[in-house]
Amino acid sequence: MPLHPVYGHEALRARLVGTLKAHKLPPALLLLGPPGVGKQRLGLWLAAGLLCESGPGEPCGTCHSCRLVDSLQHPDVHWSFPVARPKGDESKQVEEAEETLGEAIAARRENPLYGRPDGLHALFLPLVRLLHRQAMMRPVMGRVKVFLVGDAERLVPQASSQEAANAMLKVLEEPPPDTHFILTTTDSAALLPTIRSRLVPLRVRRLPSADVARFLREVPTPAVAAEEAEHRAEAALGSIGDALEQREDAGDVAAAAERLLEAARRGPAARYRYALGVKSFGARSDFTETLGAAAELLRDDLAQRLRGAAGGHTHAEVPAERLVDAIRELDRAKGWARGNVNPQLIVAHLTRALGELGL
Amino acid sequence: MKFTITREKLQEGLLRVGPSIPAKTTLPVLSNILIEAKKDGLHLSGTDLDIAVATTVAAEVDEEGAITLPAKKLTEIARELPASPVRVTSAGEQRAQVECGKSKFRLLGLPRDEFPSFPHVKFDTPWRIAAKDLHKLISHVAFATSTEESRPILNGVLWDLRKDRMRMVATNGHRLAKMDVPLAEEGGAAQAELIVPPKALEQIRRLFAPDDLVEIAKSENHLGFRSEGTQVFTRLIEGPYPNYEQVIPRENDKFATVDKIAMASALRRMSIVASDQTHRIRLSFGGGTLKFSVQTPDLGEAQDEMAVTYEGDALEIGFNAAYLLEILKYMPTDEVRFTFKAPERATTAEPVGWDDAASYMCLVMPLRLVD
């Protein structure tokens, strides 16, 4: 199944077409923006534009090269994204990573709508070595090779393991002449500063609700009914990914966030009991979402208070400055979770910190 | 598309293209062979993206056209067909019927459009070389490439093409092999230094018979080889290759001429007791003797010796025995001449009395001896 068209980002695309036509596209780009706004899709569009037979410029969508990109079959477009850690013999891990990635791409070829990466998936070292190997070869049929690296913050799966990021840095430091790198991330702070400094950042903004609704009506099978599409688009705040992922368990995440904040209000014994009840693994999956949802609850509270809205907020007795500190604590905790710190330790520390802030 | 071909010709074509088809691939179309029926015959092509093979075989073409069909199944069918002409007819972009005698097969393929474009290499001013010389270059040099991921450039073979000679060089940073072969006939548009994957060179060695005359030409990203209806293309590795000339010693002043078989045999014996990690052994030259010794903590020690012709001051030097054995394996003569400068400087090895227009040299870096 070919990829769906790019929705929205007209101004950014127009700028990119200009730089493509002028042969001035920087060789290493960072597409930075919230989850689900279409950064990787935009990266593939850019790859098609670089390789289009009538380009470089706006991809025509009809030439052999554009069609191969749209069906994820172009041999000079190398798309990497987080996958499971290779488990086999170290000498065969690059081949294993290649196979795993190939299977994931085959699945995306069948169904180009994909969800967020699994919490345990990352861009592990063998995957970057594979990229290095491909980067050292000249293009197969195009003028250039394009490497699209999605969710690049996962180059550092844990704070202590930076091998993959360092290997990526090595490629970016000495890029082969006919090669373009497009990295995407939701969190540029999670990238190594040395990698960040070698990329030209491009902000990919949230989409207008009308574009999200149009996507929901036109792309998924079965299509989303117009009214529901409007409703989901409003709630998704400009993220097609969020609109697609509005799941039945959304309420569960909010409830888990409430329970976390509730535990912080209690005494130390209750906090530790709550912490021990949390899973000791999988920091980057549901747990991160719970932390994010808790921060959102506090932000909502703060926003209501700043607007002077009466009622609704649950932390009326907490001064606004402390709410800001609490949000900061939750963001820090999210950073640790991204680094795969044991969720029990995170919760123990976080609930104590929130308790001390008077939440 | 409609054509008729003899079973033998079909098998011949499939046999040539078959090895370029990857056993496992994530791009389904690469498991297929591109079949193009044209006025001049049947063109068969396959690729794993690094290597592409295209061949033309004689066929009676009634209607031109193209399709891709699963290579493995088509090869199996061709092998089992009775000895009768084979009639192939395509129906649309993705179906073909194969008939031979009373056997009939309907195969599902993929549209030609999904097949990646083949490299465009112009053979206007090619280099020409006898395939036997090409085989010689490949078999004596390609072994020295690195298999480490850390420096991918060393995973390739440097091919220095000039008007009057070809040179191949390969190294893993610890040992190096270099061979020059003069060209009988001057050719080639210009000088070129290309880095070629050894896997492609293996294919070339397999596909061209020693008596073939092979034409070689390059494009921006590919190197092409052509002989009698078969073309092979290989993707090139990005350069530049490290300056290997810098490490080739010019001032070695100690020389040893050894019997290859006797030395290899002693090295294999010493390797049994050498460390599994370093394969370190000690070689002591002096007074017409080469003494081998090895000492491995927790395992034991071993000594051996053989007669050699040696010129120069006595020398004690350490080597990775595996590298020395490998070099000896590829030396084309019974006697080998080693040159040395000092225990920490590069050593060279060359064949003695090689009756060939080619010149061959290997280099190996010594290991520090721990006393």
Offer a few descriptive terms:
heterodimer, A: 359 residues, alpha/beta, Rossmann fold, Zinc Finger, Delta Prime, domain 3, five-stranded parallel sheet, 7% strand, B: 371 residues, alpha+beta, DNA Polymerase III, Chain A, domain 2, 3 domains, nine-stranded antiparallel sheet, 26 strands, elongated
Can you describe what's shown?
The complex is a heterodimer of chains A (359) and B (371). Chain A is 52% helix and 7% strand. Chain A is of the alpha/beta class and 359 residues long. Chain A has three domains: 10-205, P-loop containing nucleotide triphosphate hydrolases (Rossmann fold, 3-Layer(aba) Sandwich), CATH 3.40.50.300; 210-244; 251-356, Zinc Finger, Delta Prime, domain 3. Chain A has a five-stranded parallel sheet with strand order 2-3-4-1-5, sandwiched between helices. Chain B has 371 residues and is of the alpha+beta class. Chain B folds into three domains: 2-114, DNA Polymerase III, subunit A, domain 2 (DNA Polymerase III, Chain A, domain 2, Roll); 127-244, DNA Polymerase III, subunit A, domain 2 (DNA Polymerase III, Chain A, domain 2, Roll); 248-364, Roll (DNA Polymerase III, Chain A, domain 2). Chain B is built from six helices and 26 strands. In chain B, the strands form four sheets. In chain B, strands 14-11-12-13-26-25-24-18-22 form a nine-stranded antiparallel sheet. Chain B has an eight-stranded antiparallel sheet with strand order 6-2-3-4-17-16-15-10. Chain B has a five-stranded antiparallel sheet with strand order 5-1-7-8-9. The A-B interface holds A 64, 67-68, 71, 73, 75, 94, 98-99, 101-103, 105-106, 129, 132-133, 135-141, 176-178 and B 24-27, 29, 49-50, 113-114, 116-117, 119, 149, 152-153, 155, 197, 220-222, 235-238.
Fraction of residues in H or I helices of chain B = 10-25%
Largest interface: A-B, 27 and 24 residues
Major sheet of chain A, described briefly? 5 strands, parallel
> Helix/strand-derived class of chain B?
alpha+beta
Shape of chain A: globular
Q: Roughly how many Å is the radius of gyration of chain B?
A: 26 Å
Cα distance spanning the termini of chain A: 50 Å
Count of structural domains of chain B: 3
Helix tally of chain A equals 15
**Poorly predicted runs of chain A:** none
CATH class of the largest domain in chain A equals Alpha Beta
